[in-house]
Amino acid sequence: MVTENSRAELMQSGLNLIGQALSIFDADLRLAVSNRQYQAMFDLPDSLTRPGAFFEDTIRYLVLRGEYGPQDDPDEAVRIRVDQARAFQPHYMERERADGRWVAVEGAPLSQGGWVAVYTDITETKRQEALLRTRSELLSEQVLDHAERLAGANRELAATISALQEAKRVVTETQARTRQVTEMVAAHIAHIDPDFRYLFSNGQLPQVFPGSRADIVGLSVEQALGPANFVVLRPYLELALSGRNQVFEITDSDSGRRIRIALTPDRAGKGVYILSTDVTAEVEVREALTHASRRELAAKITSGLAHDFGNLLTVILGLQDRLARSGLPAEAQGDVEATLAAARRGVHLLERIGQIAQPPGTTREPVALRDLLDDLSKMARPSLGEHLQLEVRCDLPETPLMLDPGHVQDALLNLILNARDAMGEAGGTILIEARAAAPWLELSVSDTGPGFTAEALARATEPFFTTKRGQGSGLGLAMVFDQTKLAGGTLHLSNRSDGPGAVARLRLPLHPVTPQMILLVEDDHSLREVLRRMLIGMGHSVIETASFAEAEQLVDLPGLTLILSDIQLGDGLGPDLRRAGGPPLILMTALPPGDPLRVAAGGIVLTKPFDAVSLAETLNRVLHD
Q: Which residue of 190, 376, 427, 523 is most buried, as measured by CB atoms within 10 A?
């Protein structure tokens, strides 16, 4: 079989054997294909015969060199020819060049956009025509001879044109097939030149880097992906341009997506081929498995040693406590107190291992984040000392958010204390920032300390990893990571780009609480009271009723935004409260999923019993879908 590369080389060799000059420009007026005669006929530099060269640059070069004769306004001459190329029409023309030679130009458009042009040197033909006109009577025999030669040349030209048409067909089909295949791939495939400018793209960049443009040909990598991503990519691109293959992963600075990128140097030395894929799901599964295995290890350690270790610590604590009350000398008393402190730390460590082995769940409730951050600031400041400053910036509206307040507060406090320990006695500033970056709530804790080491950036969220030299358990960031994942968010650690210091960025799903007026229909008095308290606690207004008949009179109430009803009421069925164009209906039932009454109800059904978290998430999904 002939590979695509060998086929392309075979095609180029064939084009180089054609006597005429040939060039193919694409819809963006950039050179796609040319042969050796094209460069030789117009004496073009190598830069203008490489794929991707701009048509405007070629025309400007020829105009300034005098190819089209003297020009009063070279820029205007270039503009006219570029405008003609953009509105390309099939044509055939003959023109005399500045050196006195004649060239015939024949152009035809391509179905994918762009055009193919064939240039034939007809100087000899023109000379023969002039000779025939001036010496027709004296050179009759020569005329016949040259006429025969001209006829032969015409026949050769016709054969060449046929070959070019076939070459055009093959090139067109190959381009169409290649483009279709690359556009079907669930990845971004591209080619850049040594100036980091895109020469080709399969249009899939937005699928890998959300929010980016699809039409990036002609743009630089920095323009297409943003300065922050380009700073990370540039060292790898430079290595690839030097001839070294690169495979690596980065985190998109805007979306937080994890991207795997493979860079392959162009064997012709004309740039780099790029293959980019979104591996966020793969990385999350990999990290989850890694953390799960460590949690499993922690659980085994806890279950296997906790009992004996607990008994041992109990004995140690008891004996040391007895020694502390036995009137020991001052020096021995200090040793006893140190031993007691170490034993108590062992108890605390066992508790932390148990927590990471079985992390608690997430309970969301309406939270005024600005108030939570103010409370956190008041709680944390006494532990920072006078040499550390704590600043809080909250760029959020007053609307409550559905969050687990305990998780948010614990995570931020953990990050604050880590920043405090990193800065030490040198002091500095810790900054807490909160902002909306839809669909995320972004919480960051930054400091002015020395920043993360390379090892810490790679391993900071691993259980038991610590840089505190025996003073830390290595479980703090691991617990923050686990809790954030449970909440559907991400934790990203980095060093500051504007100076020394570290940044820990939490991204949690952004679910603003919009107060609703809800009609609650439940014939069980106790359950209705519990549900009413749940809804009011979420910030909603509640109208309650115990019967279908009364609820039916209220479904058209102005301002009503949602109905929460049991499926089976004493005097009717909850699904019958559904109205075309009316407020959305959420049904509740203790019936199993396969029950005919539940199946016939349709729509969204909450299975009793459920907690406030399940109710809040269902309400949020219905109201925002």
A: 190
Domain covering 4-183, topology: Beta-Lactamase (3.30.450)
CA dist 56 and 36 (Å) reads 20
Strand (E) or helix (H) holding 106: strand 102-109
In sequence order, the 6+-apart residues with CB closer than 8 A to the CB of 579 are: 555, 556
DSSP letter at 518 equals E
CA pair distance 611, 538, nearest whole angstrom: 13
How many Cα atoms sit within 13 Å of 99 on the Cβ side?
Answer: 9
3-state class (DSSP) for residue 263: strand
Residue 53 confidence class, pLDDT cut points 50, 70, 90? very high
Task: Return d(Cα 331, Cα 19) in angstroms, integer.
Answer: 102
Cis peptide before 439 (omega within 30 of 0): yes
CA 540-546-549 angle, to 5 degrees, is 110
CA–CA distances in Å: residue 181 to residues 92, 177, 197, 278, 580: 35, 6, 23, 19, 45
Q: Which residues pair with 563 in a beta bridge?
A: 519, 585
Give dist(CA 298, CA 345) in Å, integer: 17
* Mean pLDDT score across all residues of the chain: 82
Structural element, H or E, at residue 97: none
Question: Helix and strand tally (H, E) in the chain?
Answer: 19, 24
Cα 460 → chain centroid: 23
493 close to 457: Cβ distance less than 8 angstroms: yes
- DSSP class of residue 425 equals G
At the topology level of CATH, where does 365-509 sit?
Heat Shock Protein 90 (3.30.565)
For residue 113, give the 3-state DSSP assignment: coil
Question: Is residue 471 pLDDT above 60, yes or no?
Answer: no
For residues 339 and 460, which has the higher predicted lDDT (pLDDT)? 460
Least confident window among 8-12, 61-65, 505-509:
8-12
- Cα 412 to Cα 491: distance, rounded to the nearest angstrom: 12
CATH code of the region 517-624: 3.40.50.2300
Asked whether this chain's domains 4-183 and 185-278 adopt the same fold, the reply is: yes
What percentage of residues in the chain have a pLDDT greater than 90? 37
